[in-house]
Amino acid sequence: MSDLKTTKLFAYHNSKNAKIINFAGWSMPFSYEGTLKEHNEIRNNSGFFDVSHMGRIELKYEQIQEISSLICSEIVSLPDDKALYTIFTHENGNAIDDVIFWKFKNRFILICNASNTQKIENHLEVNSISFKNITSETSLIAVQGPNAINKLSQKYTIPESFHTFSDDDIFYARTGYTGEDGIEFMIPNQDLDDFVNYLETLDIKPCGLGARDTLRLEASLPLYGFELTDSISPVEAGLKWTVTNTSNYKGKSVIENQILTGERKYLKKFIFKGKQIPRTGTKAISGNVNGVVTSGNISPVLGHPIGFVLFDSKPPSDLVEFDIRGNLVEGNLINKRFLN
Amino acid sequence: MSDTKYLKTHEWYKIEGNTITVGISDFAQGELGDIVFVTLPQVGEEFSKGDAMVEVEATKTVAEAYAPMNCKILEVNSSLDVEPEIINNDPVGQGWMVKAEILDLDDSGMTYSEYESFIS
Predict the structure, then answer these.
(1) What ipTM was predicted for this assembly?
(2) Domain annotation for chain A: domains and CATH numbers
(3) DSSP conformational letter for A263
(4) Which positions in chain B touch A276 (Cβ < 8 Å)?
(5) In this structure, is the dihedral angle defined by the CA atoms of residues A49, A52, A55 and A58, taken in order, positive or negative?
(6) How do strand A108-112 and strand A55-59 relate by DSSP bridges?
């Protein structure tokens, strides 16, 4: 346990009786008062997540062409006040990491998954892109929920969706990973206690990574290491909408060929109306096409299991059979989102 | 009534005459996170010691509760079908899972203090 990294809020998490787990080499809060309670608080009101374990990497905008050659989305024309969700791709088209870029007038910041920070740093270095890892100098706090914006607007200028804003030393964007509106703040460590105290005065309470995972799953959002990996491309993961880079980038020809031919793996959403949860690694079959569950859990809003299953090729029907510990059960593949 | 005893697999059981009541420990419910589904056995089903009797699906993971001794199900706590969170709230009381007839008595479980040092 002693080798695990902690965020600047570790003492705070313990003071709130958080259940602590090891996540990507970090000691992080899994839940405070229960995943379902925290999930519902974010869906119906507001809450905040300490996501300071995620990598923050400062880049130089002068190298935008080189950076563009490593990702599948159009970034060169990104305005100074916008955020961009995109994917770093290998030459074979598969995903190195899914990330967010925050662009400001004077700063250009990359936010990557905690599990991939070292991988991204190596990738930038190999491709002669200069960067500075500012993860330990700052904290990252995601405030989310339908009431979040209204509460925060008492003090903060609210940018439009997927836009950024900076105020003195605080940098933020109207982004998130829950399917709800909200803002993700990058805060200098010396201002963190005041910021968290302020959130508490707004009755915005801490939520753990357990709820973050059920929220993102219910919002149909992928998690690197599950829906996206070094052997899954953005198109295979159902993220064709991110493929907007018209210039050349690593893996472009493979990705374009997948779009053209449809010969690829297919990530599909499933619902299952039973009392067993098809979880990560559960074998699935639709017609004669094999698949495996990448993520599965209860949808607290719907009250039944949901998840993603990755098929070797296009499944021929919307019926899927799961092998849950030897018990064969039938679920449905859906195209629309889990929640309306 | 005997004391509540605990197993290394985190079940508790209580013996009353020829009947045992079985559930999972407070430590176990805490490790599982929010319990969302419970699959209970049928009344009349027989289990050998160590057989999986109950399946518990939680937000964090899935777990099974094993039979503490050879037994035959007399009654299941069907309120868990609609309110599985009872196990989180009161695991060793209202959150009991099954009552079963003892077929072969095996009272080799740990006392609470033994279990406490086992989990610490």
Answers:
(1) 0.88
(2) 5-53+136-218 (3.30.1360.120), 265-334 (2.40.30.110)
(3) -
(4) 37, 39, 55, 57, 62
(5) positive
(6) antiparallel
